[in-house]
Design goal:
alpha+beta; 5-stranded antiparallel sheet; 18 strands
Length: about 525
């Protein structure tokens, strides 16, 4: 009999998965020796017996009871996402906000029934995909005006319902996780080709709700580009857009749903554009002495109309922290993929752009089979896969390890990069009294600008770790907005970014969004505090 693994409630992935002992030791040694970042305590993973849960305030009615659970593991699992403050609170055993009920709808009728019940009871309802939010998007922190909190886990609505190979599209339920939907598409010879770092533990509905950015760094970067139609169930009724390849008929209903973050309704299914499965690939790594110099090469490639699957640069600090370099160079990784034709000619043009901007090959992609598995590019690939596990090692030691991302036009990039990097360093010094490690890479690139992705690591005082993180987060977010960037390129708004999202969006649009929520969610029960503040 096959026993399924359980998801961790304290970190990324399944129980038993994580960093190897050697990878853990290498990470801690690099932080300590190279950056003076040392843990200040030895924390242990809280067991279920260590966690004190409040008594449930809600009792599901008889008709909904088969969909619901109040089992401690389920309530604990659905108490947090994957953000740094979530991690801090988990290891501090702060579960006073745990959902009272976790519900698993099987179909749209169940979703409607759960919404009706929550509305009648005055309970908050939190839509939950894979729980991979890094911005507090699924953490059930709600005000005292609600009678309780129910989390709606969509994982039972996870099927690929239809594949239209003629039009290259598929109709998929919102609760389908990345591996599930790709496995179902594979027999049809197609792929959605949307691979965020959270791919294994995130869902199609979650990708649409958060305007997810995939692994592919140019052209079809966001899930927006792949959505053909969406069905959303709201407390006010069901809304399904017409399935079309394109339309100029007024404002798009899909654009209202994409990025709504569970605050307007629950995405139950969508038609999405699929592609032929990849047959031809080429990847090359290049080294630069300077990050801004490497950015110039990215701009040249992005503006050449080549649209590589990947064109990322990673600075020396990021490489060193993750064991992929010695800190002396910036790495560029360029990849091309195609379902129907060789890609070497495209790679050749990209390589010319790189060499014109002072880059040098890491490993010769022409003469080395599987060049992407070797050299710094290969080491970075391995590190990228390990990264989601780092935080569950560092947080209990009292080490903050967080990321934030933005986007900016090329004409403002260099000043933006330097000002945000310097503001992050200064914020760490002011919050902790110590130096930290601040790094940057590009996650995506467009003809008109890049998406800089920053990471920072620093030692914290265990008794005030959350407060120190908050101080740093405020400072870096202020710097992003002051520099003209977006508060988020693909991580979403959630609860963590709300103050800066309100500053970024036009005030009149905020009013329109608040009115849309009032119409679709009259009792304000859906994911309160996300996208629309309680005062709007």
């Amino acid at each position: 009999m096959r026993v399924s693994k359980r998801l961790k409630y304290w970190g990324w992935g399944y129980e038993g998965d994580g960093l190897s002992t050697s990878d853990r030791d290498a990470l801690l040694a690099t932080l300590a020796v190279e950056y003076g970042i040392n843990g200040s305590r030895t924390g242990a993973v809280p067991t279920l017996d260590d966690i004190s849960l409040p008594r449930p305030r809600l009792t599901p009615p008889t008709g909904l009871a088969p969909l619901c659970t109040q089992e401690p593991y389920e309530r604990v699992l659905h108490s947090f996402g994957q953000s740094q403050p979530d991690s801090i609170r988990i290891f501090a055993r702060e579960f006073g906000h745990a959902p009272d009920v976790v519900a698993y709808p099987r179909n749209e009728a169940d979703v409607v029934a759960l919404m009706d019940w929550a509305g009648e009871r005055g309970a908050a309802l939190i839509p939950f995909g894979g729980g991979s939010s890094v911005v507090g998007g699924v953490t059930p922190d709600v005000d005292d005006g609600f009678s309780g909190v129910a989390t709606m886990d969509m994982s039972r609505m996870n099927r690929v319902l239809e594949v239209d190979t003629h039009s290259r599209a598929a109709r998929i339920q919102g609760g389908a996780r990345g591996p599930e939907l790709e496995a179902a598409l594979k027999p049809h010879g197609v792929t959605l080709r949307h691979f965020p770092q959270s791919f294994q533990h995130s869902t199609l509905g979650g990708w649409i709700a958060t305007r997810s950015g995939g692994h592919f760094a140019t052209l079809y970067t966001h899930i927006d580009d792949l959505v053909e139609n969406v069905t959303m169930v709201t407390p006010a009724g069901r809304m399904e857009s017409r399935r079309l390849p394109g339309s100029g008929a007024g404002p798009s209903p899909d654009r209202l749903v994409v990025g709504s973050e569970g605050s307007l309704g629950v995405i139950t299914k969508a038609w999405v554009r699929v592609q032929g499965r990849v047959r031809f690939k080429a990847t090359a790594g290049f080294r630069f002495s300077d990050f801004v110099q490497a950015a110039g090469a990215v701009r040249a490639i992005a503006q050449a109309g080549l649209f590589p699957a990947n064109v990322r640069i990673v600075d020396g600090v990021e490489l060193a922290v993750n064991g992929a370099g010695d800190g002396s160079f910036t790495l560029m990784v360029v990849s091309f993929e195609s379902a129907d034709r060789p890609v070497e000619a495209w790679m050749g043009v990209a390589a010319e752009c790189v060499l014109d901007h002072g880059g040098a090959p890491d490993v010769d992609w022409r003469s080395t089979p599987d060049a992407h598995l070797h050299g710094a590019a290969g080491a970075w690939r391995d590190a990228f896969i390990r990264m989601p596990y780092n935080r569950e090692v560092l947080t209990p030691l009292g080490i903050i390890s967080d990321t934030f991302e933005s986007a900016i036009t090329w004409d403002r990039f260099e000043s933006f990069y330097r000002s945000v990097r310097d503001a992050t360093r200064q914020a760490i010094r002011e919050a902790t009294g110590q130096e930290g490690a601040v790094s940057c890479r590009f996650s995506h690139a467009y003809p008109d600008g890049p998406a800089p992705y920053f990471a920072f690591h620093c030692a914290a005082r265990p008794e005030s770790m959350l407060e120190q993180w908050s101080e740093i987060k405020r400072a870096v977010s202020d710097a992003v907005i002051a520099g003209g960037g977006t508060i988020t390129h693909h991580h979403a708004v959630g609860r963590d970014h709300m103050p800066w999202y309100e500053r970024q969006r036009p005030p009149l649009f905020g009013n329109v969004l608040a009115r849309a929520k009032t119409h679709l969610d009259p009792h304000g029960i859906l994911n309160p505090g996300v996208l629309v503040s309680s005062g709007e």
